[in-house]
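Good day; I would like, with your permission, to put a structural problem before you. I would ask you to consider whether the tokens describe a fold that such a sequence might reasonably adopt. The full record is reproduced below for your convenience:
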Amino acid sequence: MSGKLKYDDDPIPKKIDDSFSMHEKVANLFLISMFTLFPIVMSDKLFDVRNDRLHYFITTTIIFLCLVLSTHICFIDKEKWPKKIFKLDITDIGMLSFLVVCGISTLLSDYKKESFTGEAGRNSGLILMGVYFLCYFLISRYLRYKEFVFDIFIFTSTVVCIIAVMHEFYFDPFNIVNTISEDQRSIFITTIGNINIFSAFVCVALPVVTAMLVMSEDAVVSLLYCIGTGICFMGLIVANSDSGYFGLVAFMAVLFVFSCGSASRLFKYFLSIFVMLLSGKVLMLIAKLLKENMRALDTVPHALVFSSRMYIFIAVSGVLALAMFLVKTKYGSEHFPKAVQIAAGCLVGISALGLAAVFCYFSFIDTTTELGSLTKYLRLNDQWGTHRGYAWIRSVSLFKNGGIKNILVGTGPDTFGPVIKAIYREDMLKRHGSVFDNAHNEYLNYLVTVGALGLAAYLTALISLVVRCIRRASGSLKFLIVILVIVSYCSQAMFNLAVPIVTPYLFVFLGIGESYIRRFDAQEKNAAKAEK
């Protein structure tokens, strides 16, 4: 699918050949394995999918490490990149600090075994945290940019989303969900499993294909990316999980600011919105052909598919895309003044702050005004977000009342379950008929389990990498993809949980971003020396 990219002038060959070191080949092969087999590997359909992905990720990362060590031991590529492998920057320090805090938290935990293995939660114990760091470190030091790797991921993601669409209409040719009991079947879909986790997966895939669409200039390639964008958006709809829309809105807001750099980008940006909204109507057409024999959809996805008001937004996005196409045709790909992007950034920032202010007002100041159907979005209480509010409120209480040790380094990685059950088990059973083993918010979960120091280190790694990528983006596709994926994942993570089915992708893209920054800085330094 890779097309000509005007705004990305990385002078790297288009095929893996002898110009690539053995390290770089191994790194790209690792990415290919994560972007092809990882989303679909299953030993017993969806019954043990979390352990399947966990074992696959750990195994492939260890193989990656062994191959890299072998090349060093055998003195292969000893003069090749990277030269300063152990030189640390702020993102490296954040990642290393996060791992160190996880280790200290495990040693001081009342649940040492559970903290080490993650068996009390979703396998996100110290072992997996160590593998996440190892994955990040290896990719950041040994990867060389290859656009076709992202094309492979797009292809795999569209296949996964096509299977999800088939499951939405009760077609299961691979007998993936039909083996699940009927009372549980509605919350499992495609090769990913739980609908919330599938929504998180789409929040990784959709930014990649949308970025490729916005930046590609070749007509045929753009058409293929349009199809991929539409299919992935269908996947987000049938995921039937509101958390995914927070990721969507976040990365599309960032992409809007980026696209305001030129008419060419804005044309593709509005085209991507047009394609997304139109794909909802494609689902409506399929539903009518099948006499609406489909799974029930929640409020937002139902509106995207069946609401007649969507035609207005489809028309508006189509007109905007056409207008930008005409501007592009007349003025070419000339960049807009920087002030346009600054204005767009201010608009996005003010909108985000406004929404946050409205949420805080109705959650903590005005708690009595009737909000109707908006209550489940704008007022935090025990019922908010399918009882996520209950878990959030108790998470803050657990953190505040946990003592100085727990405030600093937490109760141990992935021990939220036993900690909350020890205090609120009976109350949870009385109120909800079930118990929580996760805060359903990655940041609150880390706050409780690895404390303020662990969360601070984690956020340092995330924020620093995004900021450093933004400073170097300058129309570069590779930096844009990393920024959008991290923003998208981290936004949906406010309402979701970290599991080894999808979370490994966050650390993969963190490593990808760091590798780009290191290579970019090295090229800039060499260019400066050459000028002297």
User: Anything to note?
Assistant: The longest strand covers residues 188-189. The chain has one domain: 22-178+192-364+433-531. The beta strands are 188-189, 193-194. Residues 22-178+192-364+433-531 form one domain.
